[in-house]
Amino acid sequence: MIDELADLAPFRDEVRAWCADHVPADWRREQAGAPHEQYADFHRWWGAQLRAGGYFAPHWPEQWGGGGFSLLQQVVLAEELARADAPRNALYQVALYNAGPSILHSGTDEQKARFLPGIMGGAVWCQGFSEPDAGSDLAALDTRAVRDGDEYVVTGQKVWTSAALEADYCILLVRTDPAAPKRKGISFLLMDMHSPGIEIRPIKQATGQSEFCETFLDEVRVPVANRLGAENEGWAVTNSTLASERGVVMIELAERLMRNGVGALLADLQAWSTEAGTPTRQDGAARELIAERYAEAMVLRRLLNTMVTNIVRRGGVGNEASIVKLFYSELLQRLMRDAVGLGGLDVQVDRPALMSAGWETGHWLYDYINSYSWTIGGGTSEIMRNIIGERTLGLPREPEPGS
User: Fold this and answer.
1) CA distances to 41, 113, 114, 122, 208 from 118, in Å
2) Residue 278 pLDDT
3) What is the DSSP string of 101-162?
4) Using alpha carbons only, what angle is made at residue 379 by residues 378 and 383, rounded to the nearest 5 degrees?
5) How far apart are CA 349 and CA 346, in angstroms?
6) Which of 101, 167, 180, 345 is the most exposed place for a label (fewest CB within 10 A)?
7) What are the C-alpha distances in Å from 44 to residues 10, 128, 377?
């Protein structure tokens, strides 16, 4: 994506050869129609393949079992996995890109030794951030944690908890000082999902999946030793967690959007016809629409190029990650909407069998419905615009009550 990648041709060849040997050619067909449990088992198997190949945690230091790859090597790996149409490592997304980096950056030596090897061994993590009354405004969360000796007693409710049914642990935001301004009284806990007092209820989504869940916490006891960072200082840990989520992982998603989104739409366009019977590929309005989406996908690549270049220069993810996340998720929705419109009635009534953990199933109506989750997960579009306004454009933030 940037000029320096030319020096990584041998590494690119290595990854490309590994993908040719290990990516199942027919995995989409075999997993289409699979129940959620079977698809989760498939992702566990795929995670094991990545671990054996040394590609499971490329961004982690070698000390903790990661690949220790440079940023540019991570870019190459993301591009080649996408180009090989490898399964996304979705089951371990939170473990690898949220929990792991947070523990690496903010955890004690004891916490690193206790949790990081488990992640490398295949432990699944979920993220307990959003709440029914505090989805977009994360700092308004109300789940309470009361200190009782060496434990916190946690009571509250979380929602949209991806992979909660499979998760072994949860990165959990709780309010430990209800009298403090809302960003000052939050703590960051690492909660064992097998603890007494946890109830998980799957949420039936518009796609037919139940990937997201409600998580109810009734006096769940979490050791104080599982707190990440200082008490009431969890907001700073949270910001680094979300920045990691919106970082290099977007490179792979953008490449998939170009190949499995724009590229797949161009291929299907060859077989579609307008209501008047004219081949859709010959329709001027359709061609103009596809050209617009292609141009936007190239803009996304340019934004990612800028982001990667800036990360190399300053050594960390900056505010442009929010710009990339916002642009990607809304472009994805536009592209899926256009595909459903151009495909006509046949596309709109073609309901595919269930296949979770990704929008790119090849069934346009399903992917269109699923695309709306991308403007919510990892930070809503409204929050992204606030971040861009405050941190990039320098617009003033409304003062918090009591601050």
Assistant:
1) 18, 9, 7, 6, 32
2) 85
3) HHHHHH--HHHHHHHHHHHHTT--EEEE---TT-SS-GGG---EEEEETTEEEEEEEE---T
4) 165
5) 6
6) 345
7) 29, 21, 22
CB 53 within 8 A of CB 18: yes
Residue 290, number of CB atoms within 10 A of its CB: 20
Kindly state the DSSP code that residue 4 receives in the 8-state scheme.
G
Q: What pTM value is reported for the model?
A: 0.88
Amino acid in the structure at residue 78: A
Regions of the chain short of the pLDDT cut 50? 1-3
CA distance linking residue 213 with residue 220, whole number of Å: 18
According to CATH, the superfamily of the domain at 105-233 is Butyryl-CoA Dehydrogenase, subunit A, domain 2 (2.40.110.10)
| Rounded Cα distance, 370 and 303, in Å | 24
For 5, 84, 136, 232, 387, the CA distances from 2, given in Å and listed in that order, are 6, 20, 34, 41, 26
Domain boundaries, the chain: 3-88, 105-233, 246-392
- Strand, coil or helix: 214: strand
Same fold flag, 105-233 and 246-392: no
Q: What SS3 class is residue 89?
A: coil
SS3 call for 39: helix
Q: 276-281 — which CB contacts under 8 Å span 24+ positions?
A: 280/342
pLDDT tens per residue, range 53-112: 999 999 999 999 999 998 889 989 999 999 999 998 989 999 999 999 999 999 999 999
Of 150, 148, 94, whose CA–CA distance to 123 is shortest? Answer: 94
Can you give the pLDDT at residue 3?
46
The residues annotated as belonging to the active site are 245
- Cα distances (Å, whole numbers) of residue 74 to 20, 175, 250, 305, 318: 18, 36, 11, 13, 17
Within 8 A by CB and 6+ apart from 49, the residues are: 22
Residue 246 and residue 318 in contact, taking contact as beta carbons nearer than 8 Å: no
**How many angstroms separate the CA atoms of 38 and 20, rounded?**
24
